[in-house]
Write a structure and sequence with these properties.
Elements (H helix, E strand, L loop, with lengths): L4 E2 L8 E4 L4 E5 L2 E6 L3 E4 L6 E5 L8 E10 L3 E10 L2 E9 L13 E4 L6 E4 L2 E2 L1 E2 L8 E2 L3 E2 L12
Parallel strand pairs: 1-15
Antiparallel strand pairs: 2-5, 3-4, 3-11, 5-6, 6-10, 7-8, 8-9, 9-10, 11-12, 13-14
Length: 156
């Protein structure tokens, strides 16, 4: 049995850690990611966000788009649409080209919103997406909340 983690034990500022979790992401019948070497960002009140090595991502389905956002910890994020066949998921993927100190290992990794693709799995378990349209957390049976993102949690 896997030991559970409370998101309330995660630090702020967030911690970056290496993981041996097996991540598979599929959309529209296509495997987008299959990796056993993701990174996890762990932040108080948030389920983990997985950052996936570009080497294990089908980058042919990514179409970079204009616009950025700023994370006070990780820096400036760039975005891409995920395009698989006739399906276009607007700004579903992001990355940090020049992350802030402490997060430099995020270079050459992408993150995505698990609720926008057909399926994400962690070690074979189907992921539940973190609520809200801003957060990219991956909820599995390994993590316990409550989680930021649901209505009424903005001020946490």
């Amino acid at each position: 049995m896997t030991e559970t983690e409370s998101v309330w034990d995660y630090p702020r500022p967030p911690r970056l850690e290496h993981s041996g979790d097996h991540i598979v992401v599929t959309h529209n019948g296509v495997v987008i990611v299959d990796t056993k070497s993701p990174l996890r960002i762990l932040e108080t009140s948030h389920p983990p966000t997985y950052y996936l090595p570009r080497a294990d991502v089908d980058v042919s389905v990514l179409e970079p788009v204009a616009g950025t956002t700023f994370c006070e910890f990780k820096g400036l994020a760039s975005y891409a649409d995920l395009v698989v066949g006739e399906s276009r998921l607007s700004r579903a993927v992001w990355w940090y080209e020049k992350p802030s100190a402490g997060y430099l290992e995020l270079v050459d990794h992408i993150a995505l919103y698990p609720g926008r693709v057909d399926q994400c799995t962690v070690n074979g378990e189907i992921v539940q997406a973190q609520e809200g349209d801003f957060y990219g957390g991956w909820i599995t049976s390994r993590v316990t909340g409550p989680f930021k993102g649901a209505p009424g949690t903005l001020g946490w």
